[in-house]
Amino acid sequence: MKKKIDNNTNEENSKNAKKIIRRNLRLEARVTEKEYFQATELAKTCGLSISDYIRQRLSEREIEALCSLADARGDLIRIAAAVKSIQADKRAMYFSDTRFVEQWMIAATQLINRWNQIENYLTE
Question: Which end of the chain has fewer CB atoms surrounding its CB within 10 Å, N or C?
Fold first, then answer.
């Protein structure tokens, strides 16, 4: 006698399997102590972790804007660190070199344009 294989059981098991969402990126914002405790209390009142509360409160548009601002901040930190790491005499030499200044201005203009895009996006 042949055994009948129940394909529905396998399909149901795979549908019932819990989806695992890996969250490995961070959003950061500076807040006051009062704002922090207010947010944690609101999350607690809703029965949510602070992360889940923030995820539910922010729209996709706001999350994208916050990520863009965090990226821009990182770019500025890297630029400042690069300039500070150059010895003063070499820094003077680089900034007197017109090719270097042109490249610098292109990079800075791209950053400024991105900030303008973010600002326009948030004020639409």
Answer: N
